[in-house]
Amino acid sequence: DDEVDPCFGTGIVMICTFGDKQDVRWWKEHGLPLRRAIDRDGLMTEIAGKYAGMEIERVRDAIIKDLKEEGLIYKEERIEQNVGVCWRCKTPIEILSEKQWFVRIEHEKVLDAAAKIRWHPDYMMVRLKNWVESMEWDWCISRQRLFGTPIPVWYCKRCGEVLVATEDELPLDPTVDTPKRACSCGSLEFEGEEDVLDTWMDSSISALAVGGWLEDVFIYPTQLRPQGHDIIRTWAFYTILRSIALTGMIPWEEIVINGMVLGEDGHKMSKSRNNITAPEEVMGRYGADAFRQWAAIGGSTGSDIMFRWKDIVAASRFLQKLWSILRFSLIHLDKDKAPYERPQKLSTVDKWLLARLNELIESVTADMQSYSFDEAMKEIRSFAWNTLADDYIELVKSRLYAEDSNGRESALYTLYTTMDTLSRLIAPFMPFFAEEMHSYLNEGSVHAREWPRVDRDLLDEESIEKGELVRRIVEAVRRYKSENKIPLNAPLRRVEIYTSVDLDLEDIKGALKSEVELLNPDTTLEMKAVGIKPRMDVIGPTYRKEARKVADAIERLDPEEVERVISDGGKVEIEVDGKLISLDSSSFEIEMGFESRGERVDILEVSGVKIAVMR
User: Fold this and answer.
1) Any idea which GO molecular function terms this record carries (predicted)?
2) Strand partners of residue 595
3) Taking 70 as the threshold, does the pLDDT of residue 357 lie above it?
4) Are 278 and 261 in contact (CB under 8 A)?
5) I need a labelling partner for 286 at 20 to 30 A (CA). Which of 54, 116, 398, 418 fits?
6) Cα-based distances in Å from 446 to 212, 236, 320, 423, 503
7) Mean predicted confidence (pLDDT) in 256-279
8) What's the whole-number mean pLDDT along residues 58-81?
9) What confidence tens digit (pLDDT) does each residue in 288-309 have?
């Protein structure tokens, strides 16, 4: 045979029927006799001579013993080999030579059909393609097992003809039931097929069963198949094969491939590894909604998902955050007034939030349509936690609490619309919390509501830009307060914003609890010398014992006068213990600052906008 290397070893290759696929090829190509040495019970057959009836492991030892006794062992050493084993118990597998039933695989038809299906992620199609192109055999559909779907055929005891059951005879067990007709040879004596069908023969018609195959109403192809990547070459492949063979149609329009669940040790969850965390334990401690969040956000479509308790805890914290947002909202919202009507005029910040909300609807809808559940969940979390809770609610609190505020109705409408929309967006991920949340806002079930739709009129770039500027201004002033150890709820004397943008100041004033004024950006802020700091690294070595007195004298100087003298190229004179000392600019640092209307101010800058803060 061309595949045998005559220069390797003895140049002779061993073959049995069968040890592997290569043996099967050679047996068929060269017309070799079929010799069954092992029976279904794992015992040696009569072809093994004196070893007949012995178990495989025992006969190996017996053969070695006999070879040693006859002096035929030339060398004995331990070697490593790749041996097929049972995936459960790891017992080495022996191949039995048995007749089997096959389904012919038409590779090109399967690949053509697979290409018409939308794969999520799309690269999973490559796995199926590689599998189909590498297949060397047809599909063996028979199994030598005790349980399974019977193969509905009989064998004539007289002539050996195969008699296949008719459709009206099904279902049946050929080992119990007999044919309702005679063999073509006239015999009525049959032997029923004892083998059963491969389980994938049952599973591969699941799409047909769902679609109503052979029923009055047949809706096909079905819309979606969700499944794991580990059974692409089985469940997905065989379903496509059966569907094409039986209907000439693809089984589904789309297929979503998910990954495996990994334990905290990074390995696939398995009883043998003892790394399984039971869903009941997770739900018992944190609830089903936290568990569902983890499943949604744990990884992108097609990738494996690692189970980590810290991710469950994070999901639970998000639920607690949503509950806090809801409780705050319910202080102001009245279920009897729902749904709130949109006021004629919306404030800048309200327009901004509604624009962001509609951006969220648009992106989450796209994520759901592409089965990117992790991205959808991340965007919902970010919006609820950051945009809604940290930014918007803090900006509009003063309006919500002020009964006579002109913008209160605008804020109430915006808050209701946002909470109502959120309850619907989270419903697929957190159905129980969503239902509870919705019950405080509206009548009926959230799961009977329509999915939110984008209101393009609210996707206003100008509103987004203005709202973002308001948010950043408030954020910058709050950071300034924090850095200067000023309590966030403490008012500042005045805040001046230098911009040509027409900003609604009500929310800025409310959030900062300070007077706020808009000024023309061309208004000049005067920079002046506001302080002098002695440089002890220069003064110390030069004046030694008198260094402290020199430093004190520098600090008493008029900063503006010093700045003028230095700018003119002169030196500053001070008097210490009756002596005049001339100092150049190396002995001190002049601190420059801004003034507005004669008052010292600190300057912040956000997106090119200057903010003057007066403490």
Assistant:
1) aminoacyl-tRNA deacylase activity; ATP binding; valine-tRNA ligase activity
2) 526, 600
3) yes
4) no
5) 418
6) 30, 34, 20, 7, 37
7) 92
8) 92
9) 999 999 999 988 899 999 999 9
Radius of gyration of the chain (CA): 41
Q: What pLDDT does residue 17 have?
A: 86
Contacts of 181 by beta carbon, 8 Å cutoff, 6+ apart: 163
Residue entry with tokens 């492949």: 237
- 0.85 exceeded by pTM: no
Find how far residue 100's CA is from the centre of its chain.
43
Tell which CATH architecture fits domain 526-614.
Answer: 2-Layer Sandwich (3.30)
In the chain, CATH 3.30.720.200 covers 526-614
**Measured distance CA(178)–CA(561) in Å, rounded:** 119
List C-alpha distances in Å: 309 to 125, 264, 294, 312, 379.
Answer: 33, 8, 10, 5, 22
- Are the C-beta atoms of residues 417 and 343 closer than 8 Å to each other? no
| Alpha helices per DSSP H over 107-184 | 107-115, 124-134
Q: Which two tokens stand for residue 181?
A: 């007709």
Average pLDDT (392-415) is 90
Predicted local confidence at residue 562, as pLDDT: 87
Q: Which residue has the tokens 């709202």?
A: 467
SS (H, E, C) 422-487: HHHHCCCCCHHHHHHHHHHHCCCCHHHCCCCCCCHHHCCHHHHHHHHHHHHHHHHHHHHHHHCCCC
- Residue range(s) in the chain whose domain bears CATH number 1.10.730.10: 291-459
DSSP SS3 for 226: strand
| pLDDT at residue 483 tops 90 | yes
Note the pLDDT tens digit of each residue in 114-158.
999 999 999 999 999 999 999 988 999 999 998 999 999 999 999
Look-up of token digits 């009964």: 403
Of the given ranges (234-248, 257-271, 400-414, 430-444), which has the lowest mean pLDDT?
A: 400-414
Percentage above 90 pLDDT, the chain: 67
The pLDDT tens digits of the residues spanning 317-354 come to 999 999 999 999 999 999 998 999 999 899 999 999 99
Q: Which of 293-297, 486-490, 589-593 has the lowest mean pLDDT?
A: 589-593
Query: d(Cα 425, Cα 364) in Å, to the nearest integer?
Result: 8
Lookup: tokens for 175: 């080992």
| Single-letter code of the amino acid located at 182 | A
Using alpha carbons, list the distances in angstroms from residue 147 to 151, 200, 417, 437.
Answer: 11, 14, 57, 49
Strands in 162-164's sheet, in edge-to-edge order, are 162-164, 153-156, 190-192
Determine how β-strand 494-498 pairs with β-strand 516-519.
Answer: parallel
Query: Which residues have C-beta within 8 Å of that of residue 74, sequence separation ≥ 6?
Result: none
DSSP letters for 33-91: PP---B-TTSBB-GGGGGGTT-BHHHHHHHHHHHHHHTT-------------B-TTT-P
Q: Could you tell me how far CA 614 lies from the centroid of its own chain?
A: 47
> What CATH code is assigned to 291-459?
1.10.730.10
